[in-house]
Amino acid sequence: MAPTFPPIYLLKWNLEHDPKELHRLEEEIDVVFDIKEAKLVLGKVKLKRRAALELRKLGLDTEEVVTTESEPDTDTDHNHHEEQIASQIVPSAPGNPPAQRLAISPRSTLRPSDETIKVLDLAWYTGSLNAGKLLPIEDYLVYEGRIKSKILPVKPKQTLLPAQVEPRRQISTVSPTQRHFRTGPRKFGGNSVHSSSQPARLLHKTTSEDEAYAALPPIPKYLHSPYSCQRPTPLHCPNEDFLSELRIIKQARNLKGDEVGVRAYSVAVAAIASYPYSLTSALELSRLPGCGSKISKLWQDWKTLGHVEEADEARSDPDLQVLDLFWKIHGVGEASARDFFSKGWRSLDDIVEQGWDRISRDQQIGVKYYDEFLQRIPREEVEKIASVILDYANHIRDGFRMVICGGYRRGKPDSGDVDVVLSHPNENATHRFLVELLESLERDEYITHRLIVSMKNSDRGQNPLNWKGSMPRSRGGFDSLDHAFLVWQEPTWPSKDEDLKGNPDARNPNVHRRVDIIISPWKTAGCAVLGWSGGTMFERDLRHYCKQQLGFKFDSTGVRRQDNGEWVDLEKGDGDLLVKERRVFSGLGLEWRDPTERCTD
DNA sequence: AGGCAGCGCAC
DNA sequence: GTGCGC
DNA sequence: GCCT
């Protein structure tokens, strides 16, 4: 006789890429869909940390219960939730084997703080089925957590079923003559709990639409995620020509002030950029996250007509060309570009002649070095600049570590600016350091302008305690990082001495470059590196993922809880900056992505 | 039918 | 508060 | 514009 199971909540994690199996299990096990009704949580999880993360996603903030004897109840935290997951597993129906003492430690006092939630390996379920009775849970217990607090509403969203993609209206599907094959075997997660009792059923009646779907190359599993931070997005992809069109439309929308459009096109670009096959049909495209009917229509036009109308219009619109020219001035965004345009200005000369005093200092610098800032920086020069910075840093205080981030780290052959993150294992070394570094670089004439210097972290001039009001969230730590955005120019050139002899005001011919220097406290340096390395969408989605899925707030200064702002340390332990960055990935429940796989733009 | 990242700076 | 860059 |  099959045993009767207590109410079970099934974690979708690691099952979500196999929706059929997930559905089978959900039906076979009589799962509850609200974790609060469950006595037990099952999942294909092996790691405590992962289990805790998954619970957090569901709105349960837990701390591990060490399964030795009952911990001393020093727990004064009072989380008075009346109904909660009981500490004991009480089968919900009669007829279960009486001998199963499922609770680990006998607890007579049912104080709320004793409430724990247990996460078991799915194998417990299959094993129990096979045995015809409920097995002891000890061998299968992955994680036992005491509920610290219920988090606000953290949505259990993201179901990720490819089959739920709604069939689009007939877009004459170019028959996929060219079949694609995945590069590797499908991974179901090896140890999957195959089918003991229930034979696989047909989930769908086969309509022609379904057949069209079935004929498509399978979507790589990572593309089931709507978060680009969960996908490898290489610098180059098979659909770059189409992407170029989308990027043109996106920029046109940007110049027109259509923020939402920009967002939508950015999402679509990021998804297509991570798709490893050459697209063969609009239907195929419409399966990707962020790619709906509009994007599919654009692809169809592009494929059949050879061009995309909106992109053509953008290219040939002279007003847009002017807006774009202005927009490329450092310090000029979409709003200022249109503002300039509305003043009747049509060229950089117009700005200089008619508006020089009315534009900001940043914009003046942007105009002055317009051509130079648009020149790409070869990797070699990026490295040169970075090594100067590191040398100067170490000259002030030895032991600095540096990672060159930005496009360089993503593998681009050249960059628009230079981003370096510096840190030092000694916490004190980074404090108040940026000013010193800037002064020494200025002394040797590397820096021609400071665009911004932000020092929330360190002492800002006279007022050492000025920022303390904003510190309660980061206990015993720094709240932020120091950041300088500079105009950089190599001070020497081959014929310098000669030139100066002839003319004391001889011009330095080296190109002016924009350089970001970030000084991060060691304990959050992994976050800084991560936060400064990804493409725009990667970084956006990272923040979004943290908020939606984990209830965390991520930025380059660290990870904090959303509800109370408490700092979450994901970087504990030895290791260099890159190790710390990896810890952040795993602490956030994310698969490692090499920087070269964060090219979402 | 609401949300879309979220921060610090200049102005 | 808005605009900007990241 | 797409998602939930």
Describe this structure in words.
The chain has helices at 19-28, 48-57, 123-131, 208-215, 240-255, 259-273, 282-286, 293-305, 309-316, 318-327, 334-342, 348-355, 361-368, 370-374, 379-396, 406-409, 427-430, 433-443, 496-502, 525-531, 536-550, 577-587; strands spanning 8-10, 40-43, 60-64, 116-121, 141-150, 377-378, 401-404, 414-415, 418-424, 447-455, 482-488, 513-521, 552-555, 558-561, 567-568. The chain is an alpha+beta fold. The strands form four sheets. A five-stranded mixed beta sheet has the order 1-2-4-5-3. The chain has a five-stranded mixed beta sheet with strand order 7-9-12-11-10. Strands 13-14-15 form a three-stranded antiparallel beta sheet. Helix 1 links the parallel strand 1 and strand 2. Helix 5 (240-255) packs antiparallel against helix 6, helix 5 crosses helix 9 and helix 20 crosses helix 22 (577-587). It is globular and about 95 Å long. 36% of the residues are buried. Residues 68-113, 152-206 and 460-479 have low confidence and may be disordered. It binds three DNA strands through helix 6, helix 8, helix 11, strand 10 and helix 21.
